[in-house]
Amino acid sequence: PGTSAGTAAPVAISEVDVVAQLEKRAAAHGEKLNWRTSIVDLLKLLDIDSSLSERKALATELGCPADLMADSASMNTWLHKEVLKRIAANGGNVPANMLD
Residues 88, 94: contact at Cβ < 8 Å? Predict the structure, then answer.
């Protein structure tokens, strides 16, 4: 008896070079984006709504501390690092200095 497609072993996904992928997207983007420090620019490259209301919703969903939520600059800094940490946790190869 043959094996069906549903019983095939899962294929391991190698780590993704996040920096190279984001640099490639940034180079192809119409505007100059500083995704390394700007959460707005990072979200644009990831095709995620970067409006303040969406950033607040995302920060809340990811567990941003309440004291940081009161200040948009602090929230943005926290969110930028948290998004990169989540990418790293899901197989992305993110340099350690970008996660501190």
Answer: yes
